[in-house]
Amino acid sequence: MSRIASCLVALMVASTLVATVAVAQTLTPTPSSDAVSPIADDQPALTPTQPATRAPYPTTSGTEMDAERAKIWNSPAMLRGRAWLHDYCARSAKVTPEQAQEYMTELQNMSPSQMKLWLLKFQEQEEMIHQQQAAFNQHRQAGVQQAVGVEKATQQAYADINQGENEKGQLAEQSLDEQQQFAQQRGLQKSADRDYAATMNSLPWGAAWANQTPWGPYAGYPMGGPGPYGAGAG
User: CA 85, 89, 92, 96: dihedral to nearest 10 degrees?
Assistant: First the structure.
């Protein structure tokens, strides 16, 4: 007999003793002749109280018990319990294959009442595991959302940095283009000045032609000569 069956038998014996004591206390004892008070002739004689008979425990035939056991054994709850027991024994290093088979056989040979008690304990553990798993999933989801938020903020920061660098790069490129354009214009101006000077020097009048009236800027006075702007001025 398994340990669970032994416990159930002990509980049944204890309940039987308690019920017997309770019935004995409810019985009315037969009064003695000395304690009986005189009874009038016109009153009926008292009869002693008959002891109460206790209803017998319901009995179940072996066929009915086997049918009930098979029904519980193949129920969805028991199928989950059997799968859990098989998985636990397979993963536990302390349980040998022989012990696993012994546990499964002992579970299968339990009475219907023992199976129901085992299922109640298993379902309590199962519900506790589900609650722990739900709490873990909720905590993990919150962590994932927080990580996603941090990643988005980091990407936005990098985007802002890149945008600022692009704007700085555009400004630097624009300034470089302006400098190159200015240098090109100066180069063209210098080239034009050289061409102009070469053209003037190639004329028959020479460079002095450009300094005399009406074409020159010095109102008819040669450059460096006498006049209001020449060397002899003053």
Answer: 160
